[in-house]
Amino acid sequence: MVLSASFIFLALALSAFTSAADLNFVFNIDNSVVSPDGFDRAGVIVNGIYPGTLIQAQKDDVLHITANNNLTDPTMRRSFSIHWHGLFQMRTASEDGPAFVNQCPIAPQHSYTYDIPLNGQSGTFWYHSHLSSQYVDGLRGPLVVYDAEDPHLSLYDVDDENTIITLADWYHLPGIGIEEKFLNEAPFHEPIPDTGLINGIGRYNGGPQVPWARINVEQGKRYRLRVINISAYSAFTFSVDDHELSVIEADGISHDPVTVDGFKILVAQRYSAVLEANQPVDNYWISAPMTLQHSSDNDNLDTENVFAVLHYVGADDADPKGKPKNLATVTTATTSANVVDVAASGGLKLLDESDLHPVFNPEAPGGSGPADRVIDLNFHRDSDTGELEWTINGIKYESPDLPTLLNIIANNFSTESQFSTSEHTFVLNRDEVIELQIHGSADGHTHPFHLHGHAFSVVQAMTGAPNFVNPPQRDVVGVGGSTVIIRFKTDNPGPWFLHCHIDWHLVAGLAVVFAEAPNDQRVGPQSQIIKQEWLDLCPIYQALPADLQ
């Protein structure tokens, strides 16, 4: 009966979308050979290009993305699932993508169509595989949703496919092999990429001099740059020589403009920043040096050699003259404990996250009053057993055999005791203010924690004082050695992953699941829309031999 009710809700939901545009995309995913840094390697590639096909939409559209699995290479995972990072997926948790939380993977020689109503949500997003460490092999790309009523519309003249900037780390070896080595061989160092890329282009030590990516501008115009970190491990510090950047968006949420010279952007974070082309017609360096630990493990990588060119129309078709002006100061700052202050001492203003204030509904859920539920999360790295584990409250997250959503919908899972210990699932009541106190780890990383299904208020960031009045709102927050506190309201029933977005840490167990309002996922106005196509994924996948999974 539950499934029948869901099909009724599906019919009602689809009938309500008649005034919105239905946008159809096809992702043919195969093992195409790509060479973003001049080194040829097969990957897990969308439509033969890396980064994958750009998705552009308006905020009331409905996305229909058919993903065809044509993967055959045995050195990489041959099934996949896709997460649409930052989309809230109201009533469509089945389309969110994390394998074994929201769906079973899509098997080789099969297809699945992700149907995603955007429900008025706009901003800068991206997509990536959410099965094991597969997205390091290339299944990742940008997704931008525009808003004709954007509150910052008067601040810029150009906002199109040419102003979208992806930052990525790139590996020459397939993800499976380097993941296994990471988890099982001391000293358990995170795998180091070979190259840093801007818009899918970069250079590695000893490799060819691949022409840098170029962003074209016209003098006198203002450009909304949408910068997306689609990496598996690396943070970047983004700046443009001789140009200020006015940050107006963080992770899909509009914020009051903050003018800076650059910003650090962690894995999976996104910033929109307005650049005014107000300098003499010339070429200017775009710099994005990388931050990651033990980079000397890979001789191919030069963490500072990550550039693109801001090219003014009318300038010579050439690289900028001289060395990047911002690079030395940024490099010094990012190797220090207090990045913002050190950069300032060198004359460069980098974004302090605590300076971001949302345009709409700025107050943290519950204001300065107590939250309805406070959850302490202590994470830790352990290799005592000879295998690397990242744990939260002493538990390494491990995927269940059946997706969390399927167990909630079909098997009526409603209490925490029904989930296995290794699933590490918290059941949350509806319409409560949840406060997560994420206690940092003294391991030297800044861990980018991402919550699916929500944006949250960062009431205590790594910097600044507690703020319940107008704290930053986003869906990825950095956690270093101190306690970071975030708040959200449980107004979106579904099973939602919270995990470190350093992909190597996720595969080692650094995650929990929030099963939000399980009964409301089954019945009522916010119940999940469940398609037969989605139900068919699990039996097809489970019938596969292990090497095809």
Main attributes of the structure:
33 strands, single chain, 6-stranded mixed beta sheet, globular, 549 residues
What does this entry look like structurally?
This protein is mainly beta and 549 residues long. The chain contains eight helices and 33 strands. The chain has a six-stranded mixed beta sheet with strand order 12-11-14-19-16-17, with no helix packed on it. Strands 13, 15, 18, 20, 21 and 22 form a six-stranded mixed beta sheet that branches. A six-stranded mixed beta sheet has the order 24-23-26-31-28-29, with no helix packed on it. Residues 1-18 have low confidence and may be disordered. InterPro entries: Cu-oxidase-like_N, Cu-oxidase_2nd, Cu-oxidase_C, Cu-oxidase_fam, Cu_oxidase_CS, Cu_oxidase_Cu_BS, Cupredoxin.
